[in-house]
UniProtKB/TrEMBL annotation:
Heme binds at residue 414. The keyword Heme applies. It holds the Pfam family p450. Residues 1-22 form the signal peptide. Keywords: Heme, Iron, Metal-binding, Monooxygenase, Oxidoreductase, Signal. This is Putative cytochrome P450. It comes from Aspergillus avenaceus. One of its GO terms (molecular function) is oxidoreductase activity, acting on paired donors, with incorporation or reduction of molecular oxygen. Its cofactor is heme. InterPro entries: Cyt_P450 (IPR001128), Cyt_P450_E_grp-I (IPR002401), Cyt_P450_sf (IPR036396), Cytochrome_P450_monoxygenase (IPR050121). Belongs to the cytochrome P450 family.
Amino acid sequence: MKMWSIWLVGALLASLYLYRRTTSPLTKIPGPWYTKFTGLCLKYHEFTAGRRLFIHQLHKKYGPVVRLSPDEVSFTSLEAIREIYASGGSGYDKTEYYDLFRQYGIKTMFSTLDKQAHSHRKRELADRYAMTNILREPHVSAIKERAQVFVQKCHEFKGSIDVYSLLHCYALDGVTNFMFSPGGLRSLDNARDFDMMEELTYHQSLQKNLLHYYLPTCASYFPSWLIPRPSPMTNVYAIKMAAQKTPDEYSLVARLAKKGSPLSHMEVAAECKDHLAAGIDTTGDGLCFLMWELSKPEHSQIQDRLYEELRLTSTDTPLDNLPYLEAVIKEALRCTPPIPMSFPRYVPSGGRTIAGYFMPESTIVSCQPYTVHRFDEEVFPEPDRFNPDRWLEEKGANDRNRLFFAFGTGGRGCTGRNLAMVEMKVLLREVYSHLQSSLAPDMAACMDLDDQIISARPKDQMCKLVFESRSRV
Ligand code: HEM
């Protein structure tokens, strides 16, 4: 082929590309000019753990709808949340991003992309996460017993104590005792189980995960040090527990592996391992951010008010009758949602209009809790301030609750929400009925949100607090 014809083909392709980019309906969407042509800037921010803040800044500059790349748009309004995540019940299909969350290479409920397949799987287990099941005596007793061990550790230890690690133990023990009842881990007081908490919690996997996502065909050639979050102990554990012979009939594993279940043993193990992973960092990080906020000197009044509520109610007051406790938890999940980043979805065939803009089919659309919880300052005034009282005001309560997005929404919202809320409430009631916490003198760890693949954790993975008995203060 002559040189000039190569140039001609190149010029034609470039013109076609520019034509497509400049005539796509997405060009009308506010956003930096370069996002019409390339997603490289977004990828740069993803690889440097800055995606969430990059998107947040774009929303602050361009408004509630912003183009992130030639085929990706972020939204932050209630209207968009309802359309993307709840239209028709479960909203739009997930993108291949969720393939990263397969377990043993098997699709779980969380990593199933298509709505129909997802709803089949959900039918197999949803009743286990109903509040009536979670509040069954054996489940609540197991959670309470773990919370009491946590308090005992805080009591025993006179100096500063790293609650980050202990709270991850508590979350791991809570979720495994629920899933595998009457079995389950005791990482708060058993060294071998503690190792499993460490395996699941202390890892650097962001870039490795992104490489797997962007280069899926090369992934099988990657060297072992590029495998994200290897968890050999947990792998063996979940497979073993999925084969339990006599689990409590109300446990998750009993439901998944019941006689006639359509799931194979490995599918049951994968589902359980996924819930175990979903339940440790989210609840552990959420509680850690919360206790850190409560322990700041400027929030001592908040802690005192919580103590007052707990002191004036008996220990068998239902967890739902503690409004200040609920407000404290919601405010922590609003300020520092453990999953603060975008939940990506594909626009269905034929395209859809979202928040007034037409989106062609297969556009990737999403909302991120971090921005949803801060963007509308009429609903959340002083959005960066930790202020539990905002949840107790009657005025604007509906708007606040509708924009509370920490657990997602719609048919693919968090299945474990009830379990997480019960675990958090039980622990905080046990701790703050008896103890007062403050930042330890040697607490120098950075508590900024450090983005992982979809979740975020305290940057230094450490939070040192000191506890004093309430009777002595
Ligand atoms: C504070 C604690 C928690 C938070 C903030 C949280 C948040 C979320 C969010 C935002 C999603 C939707 C993500 C998306 O659409 O991409 C989700 C899904 C899910 N969560 Fe949670 N979660 C928490 C605790 C738990 C616990 C304790 C469990 C289980 C033991 C759990 C199990 C799940 C599962 C199975 C899904 C997938 C649901 C589906 O695809 O239908 N989560 N969670």
